[in-house]
Each structure stands twice: as C-alpha cells, then as structure tokens.
Amino acid sequence: MSSSTSASDPNRLATATSPYLLQHAHNPVAWQPWDEQALSQAREENRPILLSIGYSACHWCHVMAHESFEDGAVAAVMNRLFVNIKVDREERPDLDQIYQTAHQMLAQRSGGWPLTMFLTPDGTPFFGGTYFPKTPRHGLPAFTDLCEQVAEAFHSRRSNIDEQNIALRNALAQTLPDASGSMAATGFDTQPLIAATGSLAQSFDRSYGGFGRAPKFPHPTDLSFLLRHAEPRVRSMTLVTLQRMAEGGIYDQVGGGFCRYSVDECWEIPHFEKMLYDNGPLLGLNADAWAETSDPIFARVADETAAWVIREMQASSTKGSGGGYYSALDADSEGEEGKYYVWTREQIQALLTPEQWRAAAPHWGLEDESNFEGHWHLKVANALDEADRPLITVAKQVLYAAREQRIRPGCDDKILTSWNALMIEGMAHAARVFQRPDWLTSAQAALDFLRNHHWQDGQLYATSRNGQVHLPAYLDDHAFLLAALLELMQAEFRPADLAFARELADILLADFEDQSAGGFFFTAHDHEALILRPKPGHDNATPSGNGIAAFALQRLGYLLGNVRYVEAAERTLRLYWPQITNSTMGFSSLLATLEETLIPPDMVILRGPAEECAAWQQALGASLHRMILSLPNSLSGLPEALAKPESEHVNAWICRGVHCLAPIDCWEAVKPQLAVK
C-alpha cells in the first residue's frame, strides 16, 4: 500500500457500498476499509492505526472531512504516520460499540461522531477523541500537531502504552454482564417496573415532555414502555411528549417525519438529519397514541410520517433495492446545516395567499423573532382554529412544492436490515391501527426485499446498496426483524412470514446465544475476533438487541408453544436481572420482556371465513398486550399450535401463557375475556 494518494486517484474506499465511505474515496488520505489487508499492514509495518468512525448524515463528520481529510498537507501527515481506516458506524455497529466504549474509558467522557481513535496494530486504542479542528481552537490542538504527538508517543513510549492496553482490555471485559450474579436470582418480581416508572417520572419534563434537558432525544423505547402501563398518569408522559414533539421543530411541519434530536429542551430546533431508525418506532407510537386518545394530532403525524417514508425513503423497483427503506437524510445541504428546511418570512408570505398567510403567520410563529440564524424553522406556536385547518393544509402543500425546488439534503440510500425492521414494524403496526392497506403494502414490500436479497442460503446480511449485499448480520438485524415479522403477521398472516420468523429465532439460539451464561452476543459465533465481543443490554438510540430478542422470542414461544424460545428469553432476563434491579434506566426493552414474563400476553387465534375473521380482528383492535392472528379457512400447512379446525363461523382461541380457554364462537363472549369495549 502506497503511503500517499493524490486527490484525483481513488483510495481503497472506492469499491465500498456505504455512501459515507464513498464520500471519502477521493480524499488525499490513503483511507482503507476495516479489513484484513489494512490490519495486516499495520502489524507488518508496526504502525499505529488512525481509526475514523462516522456516518453520512453527520454534520461534524462533514466539517472534519472538509477541514482536514480533503487537505493535501493534513493528508500527507496522516499517510506518513498511520494506517488510516475509515468506518461507517451504521454498517459496522460492532466496531462503533467497542470503540465508543473505549473512548469513554480513555477520555472519561462520552463520545460521538466523528470518533477519532488511535490504535496499536492489534486494534487496541491508546488515545482518542471526537472532532479535532485543523487549527487550534475550542481548547483543542491542531489535528496535524496531535497526529505528530500521538505517533511519537507510540514509538517512544510503547511499553507504557502496552501496559495501558492491558488495563483497557480488562476494563472492557468488565462491561459484559456478570453471569455469576444472575445465577443467584430465584425469581422475578414487579419492583424494577415500579422503579423504572418512578425514575422516568422524576426526569420527565412536565412543560415540554421528554426526559432531561437539552439536547433532547425522543427515547421511543422509554415512551413505549410507559404507554404499556395501566395507569393513565403514567401513559400521559408518553402522550404529552408525543404532542410536544408533533408541535415542535423536531417534526418536519411541511414534509412529515422526525429529525434525530432537538438541540433545545422544547423540541424547537433540531439537528436536521432524519434517521430511519427513529421514525419507525415513532410512527407506531403515534398510532398507539391515537388509539388511546382519538386526538387528531396523532393521526395527522402518523399519516404525514408514513407518507414521507413511502415518498422519500422507500426505494422504487427501478433502483435495484425495490421495497427497501433508505437509511437517512443528511442534516446539511449546500454545505449548510438546515438550509433545506428553513425560511425567511418574506419567502413564505410571497408563496401564500393573504388568507393562508393570516392563518399561517400566528400558527407557525412567523410574527415572532426568527429562531434559526435569521430564518424561521417552522413549529406550532399557537393553536389553530378548526375553520383555518384547510388553509394550513393547502399552505403546507404550497411550501412543500416550493421546498422541492431547492437542493435536497443527501440521502444515504443503503438498506440496513435492522433499521428496515424497525420501520417495517412501525409501518405495519400503524397500518393495523388505522386500517391502511397501503401502509401494509409498504411494510410487506420492504420485508420481501430483505427476504429476497438480504437472506441467502440461510444467512442474513446486514446491508446492501444497489443490489450489492455484504456483511453478516448482527444481533439487532435478527432480533428486530423477528419482532417486525410478529407485527406483520398480525396485520395480515402470510405462512412464509411465520416460516421466516422461526428460522430467525433458531439462528438467534444457535449463532448468538451464550448457552452457558444466557443472553445474546452482538456478533455471531463465527464473527471476526475483535478486542471485545459485546453483549449489550441497554437501550440506546435503538432498542437493545438483547431486549428485543428476548421479547420477540418469548412472544413467539407463547404463540407456538415452543419452550426453547421462552426459556432463552428467561435466561436473558436472568442474566441482566442484577443490573436491572440495581438501576432500571436504559432497560425499557428488557422491562417489557419482564412485564410479559410476569403476566403473559393474550394470544388470540381467529379461525373461520376470511371476512368474519377480519371483522373480529378489527374489533379487537391493536392492543399492546395481546397478539392476534387471523387465520382464514383457506390457509393450510399451519404448525400444530395454529392449525385450528375450520368452521362456518369465526371461532376464537384465547391463550395466556400455557393456559388456554375453550374456543369461543360468540363475539359477546369474547369481549369480557379480552376487556374489549
């Protein structure tokens, strides 16, 4: 490998599928992907590795790239001193987890993106940070000066670094859950559920919703946990949060969909990137909020978000990824954060009729001071008179058409299995709540794309772009997809979906489960050996793979009467029980599993004529505490647990855990069993 490359010549990233890596393919930095060739070079030449982790929609990743990685003089220093490796954190979440954790240990503060880590040739980090400027500022050294100092330390103080590396590896190993403590647990109880509710209530922002102060993230897993609660005052924390988000600038008031987070506590100004993984769960949550309250704001947000996803984030059949959902929209356009989304007052007034302006100006706060660098980012500043709603509906359409003439933010058009699964689940659930066959068609198209392209010879793959599939799938891919299939089967039962779900469940047990200690590793047993094999239990921006695996396996086990699946879920819960009982924060997905371990959900099988089954299913609704499968008489080849006899009229089989009722053929008799109104 040459130690330098010209700006006109592509580096080794030129063959990548990741749009983020491709953004750096013509940097003068001699970037390489994380692979054996790059790692071998570091070992053979005894050179430190400069590892840079980011993603395509990341604003500060772009800043550091423009300042340093596109600069020939900076690149010359990097190429002389290091083997330079660039990683897309969305394609390699295994590496991102490890090195974010290591950064927190080394720097004693949380990380972020871009993540800049310096590694010894064996992959162990000895120094790191996030964004570094090209010239000294904000108390940070110039990036080239830092590179020189780090390289000098690597060569002159190697013994000290090796000692530190041993301590760091030991500390990383301590992040894995301790199986010895879990073995002492004799049973489960409701105390963690009570404690989690109390902790979330304590950090709840009663003015603006959400938890904590700025910056404020949606935390959909926590919101879902609270919405499952029986007490209205607990559920109200979710409802208030969703309403405040819907009124704020974190929600795109013109085009629909949510940005990743708000920089302020009142959801007004977002970091403008839009991520698929947030919008799937938030779509499902708004559907549930509408089912709970019938408040039209939640129906509007669900409708607009689903429309945005289908319109802008779902690949057409002509693009080689037909049906799959894209990953993200950039925060920047034309080199400026938020430029695509913000307006001047004069721009809006010129586009609207006087009557539309009369309604829009107070509604969106256009009569107030600008809220984003001399521009207005739209929010709901004042409630709308119902008589003016048609005016605002048309005004949105006018603004959207005008905005479409602008240079759009970049779209990261790779298809990630795990993020697609989160959107499939949210889209299918919303389709069930609102009885929207077009949304169900969208979810099924995405699932069929994954099954046809990411599932090959019994192997699931993590990512693809333009039909090129690669990287063996991780825990999250399998777990989230299993959960999505359980939701899809309730919207419309397809035997192939159940078969796929059983295959995924069996792979989770065979390839990811820690058979001795319980729980699931993030990577499969045959995955590349790294300095740590994570077994994450905490929810982060996405739910915990262990939490969702346990939840979905337990539900599938209850549904099919498969003890193996239920026992694997119990082993997972037992492994994390000491952590959960010590501190519940960040464990909402595992707490949902605990809830259904203590009180199994209702499993309802409807069998009979298709139209009658559909009517009963619609009447039963989409409760968070039950699973409903409608199995018309025409279905055949069902597994024993679902192969109920055909009948002239609907029969309902209701089970709770291992306890089942006799079949019920009268709707009035079903209602009291399931507390249906």
Q: Tell me the CATH topology of the domain at 12-173.
A: Glutaredoxin
| Rg, Å, rounded | 26 Å
CATH superfamily of the domain at 12-173: Glutaredoxin
Based on CA inertia axes, which overall geometry fits?
A: globular
Q: What is the CATH architecture assignment of the domain at 12-173?
A: 3-Layer(aba) Sandwich
Task: Report the span from N to C terminus.
Answer: 70 Å
What is the CATH class name of the domain at 12-173? Alpha Beta
Query: Helical amount among residues, as a percent range?
Result: 40-55%
Overall mean pLDDT:
95
Biggest sheet descriptor: 4 strands, mixed
What's the total number of strands? 19
Structural class: alpha+beta
Give the percentage of residues in beta strands.
5-15%
Q: How would you characterize the overall build of this protein?
A:
- This protein is of the alpha+beta class and 677 residues long.
- Among the domains are: 12-173, 3-Layer(aba) Sandwich (Glutaredoxin), CATH 3.40.30; 341-405, no CATH class; 602-674, no CATH class.
- Helix content is 48%, strand content 11%.
- The strands form six sheets. Strands 2-1-3-4 form a four-stranded mixed β-sheet, with helices on both faces. Strands 12, 13, 14 and 15 form a four-stranded antiparallel β-sheet that branches.
- A hairpin with a 2-residue loop joins strand 13 (455-456) and strand 14.
- The N and C termini lie far apart (70 Å).
- Mean pLDDT is 95; it is low at 1-7.
Short structural description:
It contains 25 helices and 19 strands. The chain is α+β, with helices and mostly antiparallel strands and 677 residues long.
